[in-house]
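Lab notebook page, bench 4
Experiment: in silico fold of construct C2
Operator: M.H.
Input chain length: 666 residues
Purpose: comparison with the prior construct
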Amino acid sequence: MALPDSVTTCLSQPVHYVICKLGFEKKDTYDIDNILSGNGEVCWPAVTEHVCYLESDQSVDYIKSIRSLGPVCESVNLYFKSLTKEQFVIQYASWFHWTNCTEVFLEVFDVLQSTQATEVALGLMKLTSCLERALGDVYLLKGNDCPFLLRDLLASEQLADVFGQAVMNVLRVFIGSPHGLNLRNVLWHGFASPQEIPAKYCAMLLFLTAGLGQLLQTYLLQTKSVLVHRPYVVFISLEELDAFPGNEILSIAEELVKLSNFVLKIMLPFWIAALTAFKQSRYADSVILLLPQLEAGLRLLFTTTNKCPNRLLTAESSALYTTFDEMLAKHLDNEEVNQLPVVLKEPAMERDFLWDFLNHQEGPRIRDRLSHGEINLETFPREIANQIVGFAITILCRFSDEAMFSLKEHMIIKPLMSCASCYQSRFHPISRLKKQVLECMKSIHLWPELATVPEEKEQKIKGLEGNAEANALILMISEIISQLQHYMPQNCCSSDDPINSVLTERLLVELCDTHICTLYCPRPVLEVVVVLRKISAQCHQVSQQVIAGAGLRHTQWLNKTLRSRQRHNYRRMLNSIKFLSPVLRLILLLITLELVSVHSVCKKNPFDYQQYLKFLKSVLQYTENLVTYTSPDKNKWDETMELTKKTLIKIKKISDRKLMLMHLAT
């Protein structure tokens, strides 16, 4: 691994020139009164005239524009420094209301009064995040499906219609275009060190945001429109994110940061600021500072293990940055195998954790949501910040030299590393399927507790109980279980009661604990998992409908508010669910066993896999019909049992074939 001390910048020479030097070449002193009216409003024509255009196609000439705007930015920065906080609030606070996060922009003003380069960079990251979210809200005044990428948003006709194309071109000089300063990306992707971001650009974006608020107010009055803010993402089930113990680790974290080879020394102030923010309960700030540095450290590993040191630097506008997505991919852009996942393979924690927290669609996707302004910074959960800090500490420890042995053996570090070593993905589709199956089984296990009518009042319904056909179906379930027994833990099946001894929550928990590799799942595997998840979801909905329907009907029975036909249907329901329970539990068992074998089956028997996928889709159709038949407005219990009988016969036929597939897979 390259020595982090030897890296003096992560900006390529052209990018470093554009950000750190170009805007300082003109030494003119710019009069702030040229772009400010008497009441403090932005004179946009005086700003837009500094944007230069290429003669060839009239597109923005970013180099000349940055050079021309440099003195303007300096003038704005000095102007803000001359204001007191009270003056700034009186004159500008109302112009930030359109962003729905006024306090963030007022904090940025405070940052500009300090000399802390790290705080300026943090302020700029928060500013660009909130500005992007607000611009997306404005976009939705005129269009649907707001663009995900900032560059596409700023180039949209919708925003040009509201603010004017010339105004949008000014913004694109600072953010959103890889040809311009591109401040958002170089910061959020961990390329810029604190000293490489001029404070005057942060001041200018603050100034421009206020100016956009002024333009928007005029537009809303003219069009009689109302700006609606999209709700923030709210994290639920935070306990699912709990992988690491509490923050006792902070007591030695700063020492780890200073000693680990994972940390680029030019980025050390960011790490220290992140830990300080966590101690001060500024959890959003802590994570905003840490995520780019984790990316920077992993990029150092990536470029070292793949022998491409030039990729450590920012790419030019004609190429892509080396970001998390590429670093976690299976192959490089030249189709060679990416060596970073190999380095992170044992333990797999770093790899799985990164995919869970950053990439998987059902995970928190922290970096995306923070950088695009989808999270309320004031209420950012401590639980998430604790996990990011805990992960950072484990990776600092792992990529350190032997001189840190005493720290690695520290009584606080060892439990943390132990948690890391046993981490398994929680948000991969396979992991979510396991969770769905167990939740569904818990729901079905509530059925025996459902209140029923007294036994002497129950009427046996022909075709459901007490006849040869029903016994035959029960026998069919037992035979299917017997066929599958070879692929289940030993001694889990009782010959006296195969159904209730096998189709249990305990068995499913044991099977779901089987480790399944989730990294780079082949598409066929994911296709199967998609169908299995749909089946599981339909089963769960059936269970919920049965529980709700049985409770309602029992109450109506006791209150004697059921009509004769409803009483008859209620009895059918009670008899049907006694039979339906083992069927649904059998389907959940099949889902779980499929998870264990699907990797090998898809790889070794692609044709058989396709045939089996068709079968799974037929089971899905059955469960979808069950949802309809068991819904409160249908209550088609005779149809439910007839459909169930046909499906069991199909499962019995396919189970022999499935057994052969499993033999081939093992």
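Observations: Residues 175 and 184 are 6 Å apart (CA to CA). Confidence is low (pLDDT under 50) at residues 460-466, 660-666.
Next step: discuss at group meeting.
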